[in-house]
Amino acid sequence: MTLEITATRRSFPGSAWVLIGRSMRHILRTPDALILSVVLPVAILLMFVYVFGGAIATGSEYVNYVVPGIILLTAGFGSALTATSVTADLTEGFIDRLRSMPVPSSAAVAGHVVASMARNLLVTAVVFGVAMAIGFRPVANLWQWLGVIGVIAFFVLAITWISVILGLLAKTVDAANGFAFFLVFLPYVSSAFVPTDTLPPFLRAIAENQPVTPIVETARGLLLGTPIGGHAVRALVWCAALLIIAVPVSAYLFRRRTAA
Known about the structure:
- The protein is 73% helix and 0% strand.
- The protein is mainly α and 260 residues long.
- The chain has one domain.
- α3 packs antiparallel against α7, α6 crosses α7 and α10 packs across α11.
- It is globular.
- The N terminus is likely disordered.
């Protein structure tokens, strides 16, 4: 991969822009991974709606209930790709090459984050389109749609930085993929697919005190007009807390991994 780096020291924004372009080209040049990140959430959506939906009582059409949860599951699948990409850059020598150039090597992480955001939002739009085709009927107005987009984007940003940490901790790409599994699993122990009051007490306690539940309930309330209550505040607090923790931790781990 040829980078457009001049002999003079480039600023972080300029370097990040170049590396964002590199990450975006990597996404386009690995269509199998991009297709998989679309196919898996769509397949799970269809499975839950047509296989399990008739047996799950939610008080409304199940397709309307489950779509917000599938959207957050989509973010988990996309974040797994970010973790493996970060680990690949570290283990395959790309970061070492950047250190020999007049460019901040940490800009590579920014490139992965922005590219992951773009990929996740694109896949989310596709999943929404499929959901509409099979009967999803939101009642949100323009401002509520903007709120949904904002909440989802905030969550995607937070979970992407968490995946960067996992990629920096992993020693191999396979390990990074394994570490990211818990991000994919998290929506299953929440209100994404079933109401939390149907869960056993132990699982219910977990579901009601983890980030996915207030985020999915906020998105569901905005899209379908269901009560949101205090979920919106909790969702924003969770996302902000994850970011406040993840960004400095990832910076520390990056410096440690790339120290001479």
